[in-house]
Amino acid sequence: MSPSEDKIRDLVSQGEGLSTEFKTCRSQLSRDVYESVCAFLNRHGGTILLGVEDSGQVGGIEPDAMAQIRKDFVTAVNNPQKLHPPAYLSVVEVEMDGKSLLHVYVPESSQVHRCNGRIYDRNEDGDLDITDNTVLVAQLYQRKQATYSENRVFPHLGLDDLDRDLIAKCRKIARLRWEDHPWKDMDDLELLKSAQLYQTNSETGTSGITLAGILLLGRQLPLLNTVPHHRTDLILRKVNLDRYDDRDFVDVNLVESYDRIMAFVHKHLPDPFYLEGTTSISIRDAIFREVASNLLIHREYTNAFPAKLIIEYGQVRTENSSRPHGFGRLDPETFTPFPKNPVIAKFFRQIGRADELGSGMRKMMKYSRAYGGADPELVEGDVFRITVKVPEFGERAEPVAPEVTDPVTAQVGAESGAESGAESGAESGAESGATRVLLLLQGQPLTKSEIAARLGLNTVTGALNRTVRRLLSNGMIEYTIPDKPNSRLQKYRLTATGKRLTDREGTGHGKQE
């Protein structure tokens, strides 16, 4: 999704500043465009508009020069001899007043970048060469180290703590995606340095694998020794709402974690047929590819809050710790993408596990309505949350029977056993507390106290409260006074789904008297 013409017009009207730069580039790239890229990477990021003069006059780019300018720019920013470390940037062609421009969004980097061996920093609307100013350079390094925990260096970690086979696999994937990828001729240590996964601490002078490196490629034991709280909890919870129906406790490196998340999604979520033009695509994979990468890339790994992906009836929820740059629900039309872990994000893009910054979220927005009938909800805060609606086929599953130790089940089973003999008592005792409540509501709506009394309980127990909440959540029963859930006159009655279930139970076991 490209920036709208109105958004481009707003940028032009505001003029150049700390986060906006114009370059004329009518028939060829301006020489100093890479200095601006370097300065934005080193400061807080920003937007470069190619085809706009410094005064704000929109001249546009000549149509015959557009393809070459775009190619030259992308090639240069990925060339470590020009820009080091290289940058992976999104370049989008846009229109304004009938003229073609190029929109380049440059995110803030967690690294200190050099252009032609010089360090540039952004100051108001200019790019300053600070290479020879030792104070400013030291402050820049300190700011990067303090802001991004992924850059923390662990001197005791070495290549033996990483999965060397996985490094080879990632090199092969990158080479298949781009035949001339720089990694193809690098050994493992050179690759790690190129990907900024092996660094030198500017304060202590010690070198080693970074937090990003051990997270992305680490063997399980060294990884958990370094980050003992690292895990992603994958949960299916549709029938047994108190526990789970399926679970995968993922505590491996991020590359393997991504594959485990997608395997869990493939196992438990439908993949309906969808045509885009004349091509069939998997919108499930398009959506959850972004969900999985977001869950792994944008997490704050120094926080022990466990990340979760929970598949429920009709929706999927994720939670992960975050360093928020805002609070509240994100608006896809106005949000500005901000990389929480740029090194991890860049590595994922190199191996095809993530899209360009911002484009993945827009793709998720694009396909979610077709997939689940509603837009996804993304809420930023200290815990970042995503909710995606998903299709369900067939009726809602019945609630699972609680264990026989449930006080409701145990007491009813014992009572039935005393009245009807050992055989019927054992059968009734094995029935779930939830099913007994449903059978009681066949005749008429009842209050919670009336349900407890008919189950032979002296009072409303915690187990009964949980059973009622579970039945409400599963859509088996409903309030008679829905606007006042806590009303003293509140009763519960069967829904259409609950009636169908009790009809089957009645046929199989005889109705509750």
Automatic annotation (TrEMBL):
Pfam families, A to Z: Fic-like_C, SLFN_AlbA_2
Gene3D superfamilies attached to this UniProt entry: 3.30.565.60, Schlafen, AAA domain, Winged helix-like DNA-binding domain superfamily/Winged helix DNA-binding domain
Stored InterPro entries: Fic-like_C, RecG_C_sf, Schlafen_AlbA_2_dom, Schlafen_AlbA_2_dom_sf, WH-like_DNA-bd_sf, WH_DNA-bd_sf
UniProt keyword terms in alphabetical order: ATP-binding, Helicase, Hydrolase, Nucleotide-binding
Enzymatic class: hydrolase
Gene Ontology MF terms in the entry: DNA helicase activity; hydrolase activity
Coiled coil spans: none
Keyword Transmembrane: no
Nucleotidyltransferase is among the record's keywords: no
Residues annotated as domain Schlafen AlbA-2: 16-127
The Filamentation induced by cAMP protein Fic-like C-terminal domain, residue ranges: 436-495
PANTHER family in UniProt: GLPR-RELATED TRANSCRIPTIONAL REPRESSOR, SCHLAFEN ALBA-2 DOMAIN-CONTAINING PROTEIN
Descriptive protein name: ATP-dependent DNA helicase RecG
Organism of origin: Oligosphaera ethanolica
